[in-house]
């Protein structure tokens, strides 16, 4: 009985840590442009076969509005990057009222992975930079 209780507690704590990982991430800069700065969390990259799951943080100096009209200054995006065919799928996005994913989450949107909509990775974009980081030979080995 005691080991079952421990297993349940361990599962709950592990789930909470996995959920909190993006909030306590150490963001590495990918691309800095006039209209936005893009970061990714190296430690949270998860390889699955020939694809990689990754978190991307976008900081906006001026702020924008969500599709529902809320003001935001940063957003966290969860993507699945297909390394072999040069495509990416957006899985989840959260919008925050402060930069670096801080403050209040003003809106979010989750995409069901069983109906992914793959998009091509265009050259010279933050997604191309992300692909280079997470699908490169060093990243693929680890």
Helicity, in percent?
Answer: 10-25%
- Stretches where pLDDT is under 50 for at least 5 consecutive residues are 5-22
User: Please, what is the average pLDDT?
Assistant: 82
CATH topology: Lipocalin
Rg (CA only):
17 Å
Order of helices and strands: HEEEEEEEEHH
Q: State which percent range the strand residues make up.
A: 35-45%
- Class, according to the CATH hierarchy? Mainly Beta
Q: Kindly give the count of domains.
A: 1
What does the model show?
- By secondary structure, the protein is α+β, with helices and mostly antiparallel strands.
- The protein has a single domain (24-135), classed as Beta Barrel (Lipocalin).
- It is 24% helix and 42% strand.
- The protein has helices at 2-20, 126-135, 137-141, and strands at residues 27-32, 37-41, 46-48, 51-65, 71-82, 87-96, 105-110, 119-120.
- Strands 1, 2, 3, 4, 5, 6, 7 and 8 form an eight-stranded antiparallel β-sheet that branches.
- The N and C termini lie far apart (38 Å).
- Mean pLDDT is 82; it is low at 5-22.
TL;DR?
With 142 residues, the protein is α+β, with helices and mostly antiparallel strands. It has a single domain (24-135), classed as Surface-adhesin protein E (Lipocalin), CATH 2.40.128. The protein is built from 3 helices and 8 strands, in the order αββββββββαα.
What tags apply to this protein structure?
single chain; 142 residues; alpha+beta; Lipocalin; 8-stranded antiparallel beta sheet; 3 helices; 8 strands; globular; Surface-adhesin protein E-like domain-containing protein; signal
């Amino acid at each position: 009985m005691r080991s079952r209780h421990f297993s349940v507690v361990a599962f709950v704590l592990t789930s909470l840590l996995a959920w909190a990982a993006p909030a306590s991430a150490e963001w590495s800069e990918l691309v800095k442009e006039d209209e936005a700065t893009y970061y990714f969390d190296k430690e949270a990259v998860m390889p699955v076969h020939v694809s990689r799951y990754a978190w991307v943080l976008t900081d906006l100096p001026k702020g924008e509005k969500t599709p529902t009209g809320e003001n935001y200054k940063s957003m966290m995006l969860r993507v699945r990057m297909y390394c072999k065919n040069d495509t990416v799928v957006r899985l989840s996005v959260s919008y925050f009222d402060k930069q670096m994913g801080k403050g209040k989450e003003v809106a979010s949107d989750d995409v069901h992975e069983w109906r992914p909509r793959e998009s091509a990775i265009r050259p010279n974009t933050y997604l191309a930079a992300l692909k280079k980081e997470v699908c490169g030979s060093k990243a693929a080995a680890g």
